[in-house]
Amino acid sequence: MSAPARGSLLVIGGSEDREDDMQILERFVQLCGGADRRIVVLTTASRVPEKMWAIYDAAFGGMGVARRSEVRVTSRLEANDASLADDVAQADGIFITGGDQKRLLALIGGTLLDQALHAALARGACIAGTSAGASAMSAHMLADGKAELHPEKGAVSLGAGLGFMQRVAIDQHFSQRQRLARLLTVVAQNPYLLGVGIDEDTALLIEAGGGIEILGAGAVTMIDGRHMVSNVADIRQRAVPEMVDVRLHLLPAGSRYGAQGDPATPAALADFLNIVTDIA
Protein backbone atom coordinates (compact mmCIF):
# COMPACT_ATOMS: atom_id res chain seq x y z
CA MET A 1 0.00 0.00 0.00
CA SER A 2 1.08 3.57 -0.57
CA ALA A 3 1.54 5.96 2.31
CA PRO A 4 -1.35 8.34 3.07
CA ALA A 5 -1.26 11.61 1.15
CA ARG A 6 -1.76 13.74 4.28
CA GLY A 7 -2.04 13.33 7.98
CA SER A 8 -5.26 12.41 9.74
CA LEU A 9 -6.56 12.26 13.29
CA LEU A 10 -8.58 9.42 14.78
CA VAL A 11 -10.20 10.62 18.00
CA ILE A 12 -11.59 7.66 19.98
CA GLY A 13 -14.04 7.89 22.88
CA GLY A 14 -12.39 5.08 24.85
CA SER A 15 -13.16 1.38 25.37
CA GLU A 16 -12.78 0.61 21.69
CA ASP A 17 -13.07 -3.05 20.69
CA ARG A 18 -9.59 -4.60 20.93
CA GLU A 19 -10.47 -8.29 20.61
CA ASP A 20 -13.34 -9.02 18.21
CA ASP A 21 -13.96 -7.13 14.95
CA MET A 22 -11.72 -4.23 16.08
CA GLN A 23 -13.30 -1.93 13.49
CA ILE A 24 -11.70 1.26 14.81
CA LEU A 25 -8.22 -0.22 15.26
CA GLU A 26 -8.42 -1.83 11.81
CA ARG A 27 -9.27 1.55 10.31
CA PHE A 28 -6.32 3.09 12.13
CA VAL A 29 -3.98 0.55 10.55
CA GLN A 30 -5.46 1.33 7.13
CA LEU A 31 -4.97 5.06 7.70
CA CYS A 32 -1.33 4.40 8.56
CA GLY A 33 -0.90 2.79 5.14
CA GLY A 34 -1.46 -0.87 5.99
CA ALA A 35 -0.09 -3.62 8.20
CA ASP A 36 3.41 -3.31 6.71
CA ARG A 37 3.80 0.24 8.05
CA ARG A 38 5.43 1.21 11.34
CA ILE A 39 3.20 1.99 14.32
CA VAL A 40 4.27 3.27 17.72
CA VAL A 41 2.08 3.18 20.84
CA LEU A 42 2.59 6.06 23.27
CA THR A 43 1.67 4.78 26.76
CA THR A 44 2.76 7.87 28.72
CA ALA A 45 -0.76 8.77 29.93
CA SER A 46 -1.05 5.48 31.80
CA ARG A 47 0.33 4.72 35.26
CA VAL A 48 0.50 1.04 34.26
CA PRO A 49 2.12 1.35 30.83
CA GLU A 50 3.21 -2.28 30.70
CA LYS A 51 -0.42 -3.40 30.96
CA MET A 52 -1.52 -0.87 28.36
CA TRP A 53 1.22 -1.91 25.95
CA ALA A 54 0.31 -5.60 26.34
CA ILE A 55 -3.26 -4.84 25.23
CA TYR A 56 -2.28 -2.98 22.07
CA ASP A 57 0.69 -5.19 21.31
CA ALA A 58 -1.72 -8.14 21.14
CA ALA A 59 -4.33 -6.21 19.14
CA PHE A 60 -1.99 -4.83 16.49
CA GLY A 61 -0.05 -8.08 16.36
CA GLY A 62 -3.30 -9.91 15.66
CA MET A 63 -3.85 -7.61 12.70
CA GLY A 64 -0.48 -8.50 11.24
CA VAL A 65 1.39 -5.31 12.18
CA ALA A 66 4.96 -6.56 12.55
CA ARG A 67 6.67 -3.19 12.98
CA ARG A 68 4.99 -2.11 16.20
CA SER A 69 6.70 -0.72 19.26
CA GLU A 70 6.01 1.06 22.53
CA VAL A 71 7.17 4.54 23.43
CA ARG A 72 7.21 4.66 27.23
CA VAL A 73 8.22 8.06 28.62
CA THR A 74 8.43 8.56 32.38
CA SER A 75 10.19 11.94 32.56
CA ARG A 76 10.58 15.12 30.59
CA LEU A 77 14.25 14.28 30.23
CA GLU A 78 13.28 11.16 28.28
CA ALA A 79 10.75 13.15 26.26
CA ASN A 80 13.57 15.48 25.17
CA ASP A 81 15.76 12.65 23.88
CA ALA A 82 16.57 13.62 20.28
CA SER A 83 16.96 10.08 18.97
CA LEU A 84 13.60 9.04 20.40
CA ALA A 85 11.92 12.11 18.93
CA ASP A 86 13.45 11.47 15.50
CA ASP A 87 12.24 7.89 15.59
CA VAL A 88 8.66 8.93 16.45
CA ALA A 89 8.67 11.64 13.77
CA GLN A 90 9.26 8.96 11.13
CA ALA A 91 6.43 6.64 12.25
CA ASP A 92 3.51 5.99 9.92
CA GLY A 93 1.07 5.81 12.80
CA ILE A 94 1.09 6.91 16.43
CA PHE A 95 -1.48 5.61 18.92
CA ILE A 96 -1.87 7.55 22.19
CA THR A 97 -3.42 5.38 24.89
CA GLY A 98 -5.76 6.26 27.72
CA GLY A 99 -4.89 7.10 31.30
CA ASP A 100 -4.61 10.68 32.56
CA GLN A 101 -4.37 13.50 30.04
CA LYS A 102 -2.80 15.81 32.65
CA ARG A 103 -0.01 13.28 33.19
CA LEU A 104 0.53 13.02 29.44
CA LEU A 105 0.92 16.77 28.96
CA ALA A 106 3.02 17.21 32.10
CA LEU A 107 5.53 14.72 30.72
CA ILE A 108 5.63 15.57 27.00
CA GLY A 109 4.09 19.02 26.53
CA GLY A 110 6.55 21.34 24.78
CA THR A 111 9.26 18.68 24.48
CA LEU A 112 11.05 17.26 21.45
CA LEU A 113 8.62 14.34 21.55
CA ASP A 114 5.70 16.80 21.34
CA GLN A 115 7.36 18.39 18.31
CA ALA A 116 7.90 14.96 16.78
CA LEU A 117 4.18 14.19 16.96
CA HIS A 118 3.43 17.33 14.98
CA ALA A 119 6.19 16.54 12.50
CA ALA A 120 4.77 13.05 11.95
CA LEU A 121 1.28 14.46 11.35
CA ALA A 122 2.65 17.06 8.92
CA ARG A 123 4.42 14.43 6.84
CA GLY A 124 1.28 12.28 6.52
CA ALA A 125 1.08 10.00 9.56
CA CYS A 126 -2.16 9.10 11.28
CA ILE A 127 -2.34 10.01 14.96
CA ALA A 128 -4.96 8.29 17.07
CA GLY A 129 -5.86 8.96 20.68
CA THR A 130 -8.28 7.08 22.90
CA SER A 131 -9.93 8.23 26.14
CA ALA A 132 -7.37 10.54 27.81
CA GLY A 133 -5.39 10.43 24.57
CA ALA A 134 -8.45 11.81 22.78
CA SER A 135 -8.97 14.70 25.19
CA ALA A 136 -5.32 15.68 24.80
CA MET A 137 -5.45 16.08 21.01
CA SER A 138 -6.81 19.62 20.89
CA ALA A 139 -5.05 22.79 21.99
CA HIS A 140 -7.70 23.26 24.70
CA MET A 141 -7.81 20.11 26.82
CA LEU A 142 -10.63 19.21 29.18
CA ALA A 143 -8.45 18.59 32.22
CA ASP A 144 -10.67 18.08 35.26
CA GLY A 145 -14.07 18.43 36.88
CA LYS A 146 -17.60 17.19 36.48
CA ALA A 147 -21.12 18.53 36.16
CA GLU A 148 -23.74 15.85 36.61
CA LEU A 149 -27.30 17.12 36.16
CA HIS A 150 -26.82 20.59 34.67
CA PRO A 151 -23.94 22.74 33.47
CA GLU A 152 -22.38 24.55 36.44
CA LYS A 153 -20.16 27.61 36.29
CA GLY A 154 -16.63 26.76 37.42
CA ALA A 155 -17.19 23.00 37.61
CA VAL A 156 -14.75 22.14 34.82
CA SER A 157 -11.20 23.26 34.11
CA LEU A 158 -9.22 23.32 30.89
CA GLY A 159 -5.51 22.90 30.29
CA ALA A 160 -3.11 23.11 27.38
CA GLY A 161 -3.31 20.09 25.08
CA LEU A 162 -1.20 18.82 22.20
CA GLY A 163 -2.70 21.28 19.74
CA PHE A 164 -3.46 19.13 16.70
CA MET A 165 -6.73 21.08 16.52
CA GLN A 166 -7.65 24.58 17.63
CA ARG A 167 -10.92 25.93 19.10
CA VAL A 168 -12.18 22.46 20.03
CA ALA A 169 -12.70 20.79 23.43
CA ILE A 170 -13.03 16.99 23.39
CA ASP A 171 -14.76 14.80 25.97
CA GLN A 172 -14.83 11.00 25.88
CA HIS A 173 -16.83 8.07 27.35
CA PHE A 174 -19.53 10.61 26.57
CA SER A 175 -22.94 8.93 26.69
CA GLN A 176 -21.83 6.09 28.95
CA ARG A 177 -20.69 8.50 31.69
CA GLN A 178 -23.46 11.05 31.03
CA ARG A 179 -21.11 13.92 30.26
CA LEU A 180 -23.42 16.25 28.34
CA ALA A 181 -23.70 18.65 31.29
CA ARG A 182 -19.89 18.67 31.61
CA LEU A 183 -19.37 19.57 27.96
CA LEU A 184 -22.11 22.22 28.13
CA THR A 185 -20.22 23.71 31.08
CA VAL A 186 -17.11 24.03 28.90
CA VAL A 187 -19.07 25.71 26.12
CA ALA A 188 -20.93 28.03 28.53
CA GLN A 189 -17.63 29.32 29.93
CA ASN A 190 -15.82 29.28 26.57
CA PRO A 191 -18.32 29.93 23.74
CA TYR A 192 -15.41 30.39 21.35
CA LEU A 193 -14.71 26.66 21.69
CA LEU A 194 -16.67 23.93 19.95
CA GLY A 195 -17.56 20.96 22.16
CA VAL A 196 -17.11 17.42 20.84
CA GLY A 197 -18.31 14.44 22.92
CA ILE A 198 -17.40 10.94 21.71
CA ASP A 199 -19.07 7.75 22.91
CA GLU A 200 -17.19 4.59 23.86
CA ASP A 201 -16.17 2.28 21.00
CA THR A 202 -16.73 5.25 18.69
CA ALA A 203 -14.26 7.38 16.79
CA LEU A 204 -14.25 10.71 15.00
CA LEU A 205 -12.02 10.49 11.94
CA ILE A 206 -10.72 13.89 10.86
CA GLU A 207 -8.98 14.24 7.55
CA ALA A 208 -7.07 17.48 7.05
CA GLY A 209 -9.37 19.70 5.00
CA GLY A 210 -11.27 16.61 3.88
CA GLY A 211 -14.19 16.23 6.24
CA ILE A 212 -15.15 13.80 8.98
CA GLU A 213 -16.46 10.27 9.41
CA ILE A 214 -17.96 8.61 12.49
CA LEU A 215 -16.82 5.02 13.12
CA GLY A 216 -17.80 2.35 15.62
CA ALA A 217 -20.86 1.62 17.71
CA GLY A 218 -22.05 4.94 19.13
CA ALA A 219 -22.33 8.60 18.20
CA VAL A 220 -20.50 11.91 18.35
CA THR A 221 -22.21 14.91 19.92
CA MET A 222 -21.13 18.37 18.77
CA ILE A 223 -22.04 21.55 20.66
CA ASP A 224 -21.79 25.02 19.14
CA GLY A 225 -22.24 27.97 21.52
CA ARG A 226 -21.00 30.74 19.27
CA HIS A 227 -24.53 32.12 18.81
CA MET A 228 -25.40 31.58 22.47
CA VAL A 229 -26.93 34.19 24.78
CA SER A 230 -25.91 33.47 28.39
CA ASN A 231 -25.63 35.06 31.82
CA VAL A 232 -22.60 32.94 32.79
CA ALA A 233 -20.39 35.99 33.36
CA ASP A 234 -22.75 37.39 36.01
CA ILE A 235 -23.73 34.37 38.11
CA ARG A 236 -21.96 32.90 41.14
CA GLN A 237 -19.69 29.86 41.04
CA ARG A 238 -21.50 26.52 40.75
CA ALA A 239 -24.73 28.23 39.64
CA VAL A 240 -26.53 26.92 36.54
CA PRO A 241 -26.22 29.37 33.63
CA GLU A 242 -28.86 30.32 31.11
CA MET A 243 -27.83 29.03 27.68
CA VAL A 244 -30.09 30.23 24.87
CA ASP A 245 -29.56 29.31 21.20
CA VAL A 246 -26.99 26.57 21.76
CA ARG A 247 -26.73 24.34 18.72
CA LEU A 248 -26.33 20.57 19.12
CA HIS A 249 -25.47 18.14 16.35
CA LEU A 250 -25.72 14.37 16.89
CA LEU A 251 -23.83 12.26 14.37
CA PRO A 252 -24.24 8.47 14.72
CA ALA A 253 -21.73 5.94 13.44
CA GLY A 254 -21.76 5.85 9.65
CA SER A 255 -22.18 9.62 9.29
CA ARG A 256 -19.77 11.24 6.88
CA TYR A 257 -19.55 14.90 5.90
CA GLY A 258 -17.17 16.91 3.79
CA ALA A 259 -15.87 20.32 4.73
CA GLN A 260 -14.66 23.41 2.90
CA GLY A 261 -17.69 24.06 0.74
CA ASP A 262 -18.99 20.52 0.21
CA PRO A 263 -22.58 21.11 -1.07
CA ALA A 264 -23.76 17.88 0.60
CA THR A 265 -22.93 19.24 4.06
CA PRO A 266 -25.79 21.13 5.79
CA ALA A 267 -25.04 24.83 6.15
CA ALA A 268 -25.52 24.71 9.94
CA LEU A 269 -22.77 22.09 10.17
CA ALA A 270 -20.36 23.29 7.50
CA ASP A 271 -18.63 26.06 9.45
CA PHE A 272 -18.34 23.83 12.52
CA LEU A 273 -16.65 21.14 10.43
CA ASN A 274 -14.29 23.59 8.79
CA ILE A 275 -12.97 24.45 12.26
CA VAL A 276 -12.79 20.83 13.43
CA THR A 277 -10.94 19.71 10.30
CA ASP A 278 -8.37 22.51 10.47
CA ILE A 279 -5.54 20.23 11.59
CA ALA A 280 -2.44 22.03 12.85
TrEMBL record:
EC number: 3.4.15.6
Domain of life: Bacteria
Active site: S131 (charge relay system), H173 (charge relay system), E200 (charge relay system)
A Pfam family hit: Peptidase_S51
One annotated GO biological process: proteolysis
Keyword NADP: no
UniProt-recorded Gene Ontology molecular function terms: carboxypeptidase activity; peptidyl-dipeptidase activity; serine-type peptidase activity
InterPro entries recorded: Class_I_gatase-like, Peptidase_S51, Peptidase_S51_cyanophycinase
Keywords noted in UniProt: Carboxypeptidase, Hydrolase, Protease, Serine protease
Top EC class, one word: hydrolase
Catalytic activity: [L-4-(L-arginin-2-N-yl)aspartate](n) + H2O = [L-4-(L-arginin-2-N-yl)aspartate](n-1) + L-4-(L-arginin-2-N-yl)aspartate
Family: Belongs to the peptidase S51 family.
Biological function: Exopeptidase that catalyzes the hydrolytic cleavage of multi-L-arginyl-poly-L-aspartic acid (cyanophycin; a water-insoluble reserve polymer) into aspartate-arginine dipeptides.
Name of this protein: Cyanophycinase
